[in-house]
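User: Predict the structure for this protein chain, please.
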Amino acid sequence: MFKCISKGLFSRDTIKPLEKIYNYENEKKRIINLIKFSKMFAVSGLRRVGKTTIVRSISSFIENYITLYINMRGVKQGFEYDYFFESLKNEILKELRARRIYKPLEHLKNITFIFASSDLKLRYELAILKALEEITEMSRVILIVDDAHKLLKISRVLEFLIMLYDEMGSSLSTVLITPLTSIREGVNNKFSHYVKLLDDEIILKPWDNKTSERFLRSGFEECWATVNYEDIDAGVYFARGIVGWLCWYGRLAVVRYIMEKKVNPPMIIRKIVEETKTQIFDEIADFLRERRNIDEYLKLIVKTAEEETMTVSDASKIIGKDPSTAFFYLSELVRNGIMLKKNGYYTIADPVVERVAIMPEFIREVKLRI
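Assistant: Here is the predicted structure, written as structure tokens:
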């Protein structure tokens, strides 16, 4: 029964069999086709809606490809360039050694971007390009960049990605994963021409209640756990269609069922919030790190979490700014997936963020990380 938790629908793995990725059938087909036709595209949406899982699972499923995965999550401002290229180099070395392909390794010996001069970094970029060119002569490549929004202001990285796309032709597909509501709306005018070169963008959204309910039922049936309607409904109401929280709720519910033959949703939800609050502090701090007036943003997040909804007029009064400024702040929170907007009302997008934001220590913990 525990195997169904680790390998089934509720698994926390980011690489799963495609049949264990629930509901996203059209999105799976689109991603497979974009990769097979060597396109450069983005997969965007709120955190924990399954973007990384669907992309990495598909890249693992497609045969005769080398996958290079770079995760920019948690990279501090000012280190994006070095981290990207250092990670790309390490991914290339790992994949080449795993396949016992040694010739391209010659280009990457003794390369490190950390503390290198600008001239050396340029030479190292060319060495990586040379290695990738030799790899694509032997195999097609999928380059996945997670939390890619961190690179949207790093022109040299964007230029490198465009150069790869132009040079490698039919041998390389590049996938940019972002927590933005849309990467096309996430770039200022200075860098927007890079994003316009994307062939497509797939936006994953939270599920509706019926889909969430079917998912939980399917997962419980897979684990032979007889969970009653009220406990399933509690999980649906808590998760708000975010598959990451549905999986977590499902895993803990199955364990509780195995041990005690009952679920206890309030205890499960408290456990999820407690175990993930540090991650939430980090995510909010990461959003605020590049911004001025962080106190205004924090006030808006906390007040919206407390009141459940927010309007531009409310926000204007809370931060003591004119409505146009309040609208800008709210729009930034929406664009970065922290809030949702519907019919003129703003809400916190993620149910766990909403619960963490009303904790007494929230503002202090976020500021400590900035």
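The chain has 16 helices and seven strands.
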